[in-house]
Amino acid sequence: MSIVVLAGGVGGAKFAYGVMRALPNPADLTVIVNVGDDFEHWGLKICPDLDTVCYTLAELENPATGWGRRGESWRVMEAVAALGGPDWFRLGDLDLATHIERTRRLRAGQPLSHIVADFCRRWGVPARVLPVSDQPIPTMVLTDEGEMAFQEYFVRRRWRPRVRGFRFAGSEQARPAPGVLEAIRIARAVLLAPSNPFVSIDPILAVPGIRQAMQGKPVAAVSPIVGGEAVKGPAAKMFRELGVEPSPKAVAGHYRGLVSHFVLDAADASQADAVRQHVPHVLVTDTMMTSPERRQRLAEEVLAWLRDTI
Amino acid sequence: MSIVVLAGGVGGAKFAYGVMRALPNPADLTVIVNVGDDFEHWGLKICPDLDTVCYTLAELENPATGWGRRGESWRVMEAVAALGGPDWFRLGDLDLATHIERTRRLRAGQPLSHIVADFCRRWGVPARVLPVSDQPIPTMVLTDEGEMAFQEYFVRRRWRPRVRGFRFAGSEQARPAPGVLEAIRIARAVLLAPSNPFVSIDPILAVPGIRQAMQGKPVAAVSPIVGGEAVKGPAAKMFRELGVEPSPKAVAGHYRGLVSHFVLDAADASQADAVRQHVPHVLVTDTMMTSPERRQRLAEEVLAWLRDTI
Question: Which of A74, B26, B57, B296 fits a 20 to 30 Å CA distance from A11?
Answer without folding.
Answer: A74
